[in-house]
Each structure stands twice: as structure tokens, then as C-alpha cells.
């Protein structure tokens, strides 16, 4: 079975050519569009980074807290079982 070559470089090159031609033919509207995209990206990227970091830290510490709680509950059950067996 042969692998199909990726079309991503061709699509990227076509996008760059289109943007380049758009900037030379109609610099006003294309510049405004690119400016809007850059502004959106500069707002979205920090939000994505903060959201990902917050999600990871929440997941990491929640897992540790649940593990500590499970160990504490098991310890309490063991102590109660040992106290009942002594009586």
C-alpha cells in the first residue's frame, strides 16, 4: 500500500501566493483582513494557552487530591477494622 503524498505544502503555497497577489492588487482590503486576522490571533492565542495551562493544572492537582483522599479513606477503614478486631 503506497502512502498518498500530503497536500498541505501545496495548499500553503497557494495561500501564500493568493495573499501576495491580494496585497499587490488590492492592498487596502487585504491589509484590513490580515490586520483583523492578526488581531484575532493575538487575542485567541493567549486565551488558548491560559485555558490549556489551567486545564492541565486542574487535572494534575485534582488527580493528586483524589489519590490522597482515597489513601486517607483506606487508612481510616483499616484503623477502624483493627480497632474492631481488638475488641
Description:
With 87 residues, the protein is mainly alpha-helical. It has one domain. The chain is 90% helix and 0% strand. It contains 2 helices and no strands. The chain has helices at 8-25, 27-86. The longest helix is centred in the middle third of the chain and has 60 residues, at 27-86. It is elongated, with a radius of gyration of 29 Å. The model has no long low-confidence stretch (mean pLDDT 85).
Index terms:
mainly alpha, 90% helix, 0% strand, 87 residues, 2 helices
Which geometry do the CA atoms define? elongated
**What profile does the largest beta sheet have?**
none
Q: How many strand elements?
A: 0
Order of helices and strands: HH
The first-to-last residue Cα distance is 72 Å
Write down the Rg: 29 Å
Beta-strand proportion: under 5%
- Which structural class matches the secondary elements? mainly alpha
Low-confidence stretches: none
Structure summary:
This protein is an all-alpha fold. It has helices at residues 8-25, 27-86.
Blueprint of the fold:
Blueprint: H1 8-25, H2 27-86
Helix pairs in contact: 1-2
Amino acid at each position: 500500500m503506497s502512502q498518498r503524498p500530503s497536500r498541505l505544502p501545496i495548499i500553503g503555497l497557494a495561500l501564500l501566493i493568493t495573499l501576495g497577489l491580494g496585497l499587490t492588487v488590492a492592498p487596502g482590503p487585504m491589509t484590513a483582513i490580515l490586520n483583523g486576522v492578526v488581531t484575532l490571533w493575538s487575542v485567541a492565542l493567549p486565551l488558548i494557552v491560559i485555558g490549556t495551562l489551567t486545564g492541565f493544572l486542574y487535572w494534575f492537582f485534582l488527580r493528586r487530591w483524589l489519590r490522597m483522599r482515597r489513601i486517607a479513606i483506606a487508612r481510616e477503614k483499616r484503623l477502624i477494622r483493627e480497632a474492631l478486631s481488638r475488641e
